[in-house]
Amino acid sequence: MPAAGSAAVYRYFPGALDEETLRYLLVGREKLLEEMLKELDRASHSGTPRFFLLVGDRGAGKSHLLSLLYHRVRDDLSGRVIPVKLAEEEYSMFRASDFFLRVLEEMGADTSEIVALSDDPLIRDAAVDTLAEAATGKQIAIFVDNVHEHFYQMDKSEIRALRSIFQRSDLFSVVASAPSLFPGIADHDEPFYNFFRVFHLRGLEIAEAKELMKRVARLDGNTAFIENFRDYEPGIEGLLHLVGGSPRLAVQAYETVSRGGTDDMGAVFFRMTDEHTPYYREVFERLPGQRRIIFDTVLSADTPITPKDIAERARLNPATVNAQLRRLEADGYVISRPMKKRTSYEVRDRLFRLWRAMRRPAGRDRIGACIEFLEAWHERPAVMEGEPLQEPSASYAAWERADALAAIGKVQPGEPDEAARCMQLALGLAREELLDGNETNGLSLIDEAYRHADRLDPGTVQRITAGFLKGIIGKGQVSVIKSAARAIIASGGAGFERFLKPVTDAVEIVEANDTRLYYTRLQPEERTVVAGIVREISGSDEFLPGL
After folding, report:
1. Which residues contact 249 (CB under 8 A, 6 or more apart)?
2. Structure confidence at residue 410 (pLDDT)
């Protein structure tokens, strides 16, 4: 690995990093990198160019992978391929001639004589001829970040001219990136329709995101983060479930946790979302009036929302709403979920929706409940006065039921440590009774357990509750899980109904055998959490949501 402290990690400009650092920070995409490199190598041997498009949301790691592939081509294929990487932000390419002139400039060529020509088609052809001469029999691999921006800047005639050159010449391969499949390549009547081989960048798995955070910490020389990682881990896992598998957000989570710890994950999350405020405000400012209203209606909805509901809430004509939704989807702002007779819409950028929710009291309450659940769900057994709370399965092992109940009854008010242990003991007994089919005894023990809850802080009660439910969920008995959750909610009130929503949602999906509920009832961050519980209940991937 690079020496600690040898390089900063640029969240928005990975191209500034050296190759060694880029290699070290690549997590979860190693096979894709090698596959693309091999394809470019085959192209250089066969004389058949390759045209690749990396698709992924903001922060998915497109620029990182593009930059590293550029370095690998330069190092490994230099005898047959000339790699040329255009700047990530190119704002002056409005014609096909501009594109090829920029490639020449990046190769260090003097373009003054070419641009002195009077006619633009002559300039374009001269630039291409000069590139052929400069290549001296090699292929030129052009790396283009944010290619959708170039398509939006160019007239269709210029895009058509660009494709014509690529088609009739075996000189150029192109590796490009975009946040989504945009109209310039997705619409049937566009010149580049079906032209690129598309690679969708998946989000990082939780383990991969944690590994990336550790690698960034090592580069920073942040030994304290590495040494204390086990203490941070439950909160970090919960945070990563919430924000998704974006490498950029994983790095931001590391930075935020490093500054403030994980004692209050709600505060950590709020700081993370707040840092994106300038960008999200700019997005709103770019959208014209009706489109802005429709997008904000989708953004603010508690669940994925239908065009009919959007029209009613925004007080707009349904035909207008449908037309603007198609444009918002083509531009990558929203995504549609067709479900037989109805189609629901949600925001493509998960963090954008969470940012909007955090700006409203009701939204903060919903997200806060989700964070509380995730913290408790991923927490190791809590520690009280230096002694770990036991897992429910171990709490009652040496007890006969009558002895255990007698011990529970002796707990005195004002003794939180004893209250916590007896709560665990009662829930451990409840678990055994429920799994043995003794529902009446099990439910009465749950009621007994939560009589002690008011002596404990809410976080401890949530951790104990999560541990109890995980022990039941792992057995896969849906009716038992459902009964236990109902009993806890009845004992704990509205707060527990909100806290246990991921569990009750998971039970409903398994019972109904209907994965459409993921897309009609749940937002993306909820979907990820519930899917994990569904997998634990069912023991398979049969009930998981699609992509």
Report:
1. 59, 243, 272, 351
2. 62
326-356: pLDDT as tens digits: 999 988 899 998 887 889 999 988 899 999 9
Eight-state DSSP code of residue 382: P
b/e burial code for range 336-368 (CB count within 10 A of at least 16 → b):
bbeeeeebbbbbbbbbbbbbbbbeeeebeebbb
The number of residues in the chain equals 547
In the structure encoding, which two tokens stand for residue 146, read together?
Answer: 């944010």
pLDDT, tens only, 51-96: 999 999 888 999 999 999 999 999 999 999 999 999 877 778 899 9
| Segment holding 95, helix H or strand E | none
Average pLDDT over residues 195-209: 93
Structure tokens, 255: 């930075």
Other Cβ atoms within 10 Å of 139 Cβ, number? 23
Q: Is the pLDDT of residue 397 over 60?
A: no
DSSP string spanning 415-457?
Answer: -HHHHHHHHHHHHHHHHHHHHTT-HHHHHHHHHHHHTTGGGS-
Whether the pTM exceeds 0.85: the reply is: no
Rounded distance between C-alpha atoms, residue 320 and residue 293, angstroms: 12
Q: What's the token pair of residue 257?
A: 């946790």
Which residues are CB-neighbours of 254 under 8 A, at least 6 positions away? 213, 216, 217, 225
DSSP 50: -
CA distance 496 to 483: 14
| CA distance linking residue 424 with residue 428, whole number of Å | 6
Stated as kind and residue range, the H or E segment containing 337 is: strand 334-339
- What does the pLDDT read at residue 495? 74
**Residue 144 dihedral angles phi and psi, to the nearest 5°:** -125, 110
H helix intervals, 275-317: 277-286, 289-300, 307-314
Is the Cα dihedral 399, 405, 409, 414 positive or negative? positive
Partnered with residue 345 across adjacent β-strands are: 305, 336
Give all strands (DSSP E) within 122-277, no chain letters.
Answer: 139-144, 172-178, 197-200
- Identify the pLDDT of residue 231: 84
Give the CA distances from residue 282 to residues 56, 60, 383, in Å, rounded to whole numbers and listed in that order: 20, 20, 45
Contacts of 393 (CB under 8 A, 6+ apart): 428, 431, 471
For residues 283 and 288, give the distance between their C-alpha atoms in angstroms, rounded to a whole number.
Answer: 10
Q: What is the CA radius of gyration of the chain?
A: 28
